[in-house]
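A common beginner's mistake is to predict each chain separately and then try to dock the pieces by hand. The better habit, illustrated here, is to supply every component at once so that their relative placement is modeled jointly.
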Amino acid sequence: MTAPEEQLSLRGKTALVIGASNAIGRAVAVALAEAGADVAVATTLASQGEEVAANSCANEIWALDRKSFAARIDAASESDVDALVQRAVSELGRLDVLVNAHDLPFAKPLTDVAPAEWRRVLEVNLTAVYLACRAAAAVMLPQGRGRIINIVSLLGERGMVNGGPYCAAKAGVLNLTRALALEWARSGVTVNAVVAGWTEGQELIADEELRRQLERYLPYKRLAQPREIATMAVYLASDAAEFSTGQVVWVEGGALSHV
Amino acid sequence: MGVLDKLRLNGKVAIVTGAGRGLGRAMALALAEAGADVVAAARTQPQIEETAEQVRALRQGSGQALGRKCLAATTDVTDPGSVKAMVEAAVAQFGRIDILVNNAGGATEGMGKPLEEITDHEWRVGIDTNLSGTMYCCRAVIPHMLKQGGGKIINITSGYGLRAGRNNFLYTTAKAGLINFTRSLALTYAQANVQANLIAPGIFPHDNPALVEYWRGGQFIPMGRLGRDEELGPLCVFLASDLSSYMNGQIVVLDGGGLAGGQAPTGFAPVVPLEGEP
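With all components supplied together, the output reads:
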């Protein structure tokens, strides 16, 4: 019998986290490294602010004595994503875990949403996840093993005022997760999703009044810490979760149990 | 036959439990308007007599009486003997039962308590009232439906059957139980042409001003208002009619959009006081 901490250890494994410039993605990358993995991190929008955040994340991973690199990509660009996966394989030696933490927050009354905005929100939140899964599967399917973990907002399950494009994209990721899980179930590649509840550092709840209402309403009377989402990703990335695929695991402090 | 003709329930007989007031009365009246004769079952005799009077008094727009019949049957759904007697009385009076609406239920002693304070008695009464009563009614009615070659069962669950609430154990557990009970009914009797479906109403405070005040008039519901009793009637008629003949084991939620978001994530955070708040 293997000890639980060994079953959860990611020592000797490598991971790629896309979307590491947002609070949850960054926490996931660091937690995977703490669990023993070498972790490459990438931005989603190729913006300079994102690059700074990704670099600081990579530095934090190096400080843990794990290998890392930060890449500035446009996650909706096929060639960027393919090159990123190739670079992860060549610099880290292999690819065991892909975490899709892509997130482009967006809220606007639907009548004001321009078709170009709709396409961009879908592109970064959904199409980019497909591109990453496809590129990673090209490595994982031949090696007969791999873990894909999609980080999704609870708006993939529930609606929100002014959230049309965002909610549609996030729900798309949830069912993409289930479909790919079935497709790759016999190839050793598992695909699961973690649904993050309202979490510290999320742009959508920067508004003080909304935040105050949420804190009053949530069963714990507080938001999640990014770290509390990341631990579930560590579990799903580990050998302990080998039999779990196509699942959506909720880490939302009980918020969705409530009417 | 036109699509609206299939909504007609002429010649059918419907039992509605909890028909003495509120949603039960509204559904009894709607079924009667659509053509059914009605058995109004509940514990409180004067209330079901009033429902029966209203059913008998139904008129067309022209003023002509509809001539619907209504049997007021005093019934405690938590007592299988009482349920059996009610169903026998219904068959004796009308000769058949086509529709069963299990609406009886509601608040019982012990609701709103933390778990460690709920007594054995409170638990049993809560589950009997909101879950077992429906089972007793279905068990008594189904043999008649099987003999007749079919029937319609409509069970009333709640948003609290799909989601939970703080200190809400009796009601949420029973109402969630109803959902899977109904799905099992649907599977068991599908080939016998009995369809069993659920309605999950949102917040319908009826005419109770204290409830309207408690729910702040429904400000936190996406549509910005509470449900009106008469809004449930048409859905009940639809589920009782031939229009829903291929629908089985399903839940229809009627709640002004409340469950689409859950209160907090939609930005419609509750304005009602939460536990531990003034």
